[in-house]
Amino acid sequence: ITLTGEYALRAMAYMAQLQPGEFALVRDIGEGLGIPVNYLGKVMLALVREGMLESQRGRNGGFRLARPAKNIVLFEILSAVEPVKRYETCILGKKVCEDESACPIHYAWKEARGKVLKLFKETPLASLAEHQKTLKISLPGKPKKASKKSSSAAV
Q: What is the pLDDT of residues 104-123, one digit of tens each?
């Protein structure tokens, strides 16, 4: 996955650790995860556009999950920020790479990409949050609590 994809997964795992309806500031997320705040803000907005996050401006604003973490899979997160289509194409760039006209690595890549896509499509975000210690993801301090009022405005 790309660095952007990694940032999206890490930020969403952070968001999944918050209390339902709780907002977090992009500054706090970025500082807590060691991700550049300006870049992370763009990643978070892409996740808002795809309906995984909600954002709210103002004093009690920030970002929060738009739906439960158990209902968001890794593939959906990655699809919002990087071209996951590449997992479905020839790793050597051959335009037509099928069993009948395979490149030298076709069968190995076909098997590997199948496993990777299965992992991405079947792993819920909630499982990343559950394994936060393994992933070394922690919530720095106490995230800012806010009302449960939502808006689609960017922060």
A: 888 888 888 889 999 999 99
The upper half-sphere exposure of residue 48, i.e. CA atoms within 13 Å in the direction of its Cβ, equals 19
Q: Do strands 62-65 and 53-56 pair parallel, antiparallel, or not at all (unpaired)?
A: antiparallel
Question: What string of H, E and C letters represents the secondary structure of the chain?
Answer: CCHHHHHHHHHHHHHHCCCCCCCECHHHHHHHHCCCHHHHHHHHHHHHHCCCEEEECCCCCEEEECCCHHHCEHHHHHHHHCCHHHHHCCCCCCCCCCHHHCCCCHHHHHHHHHHHHHHHHHCEHHHHHHCHHHHCCCCCCCCCCCCCCCECCCC
Whole-number Å distance between alpha carbons of 122 and 117: 8
pTM of the model: 0.80
Q: Which two tokens stand for residue 61?
A: 């604003």
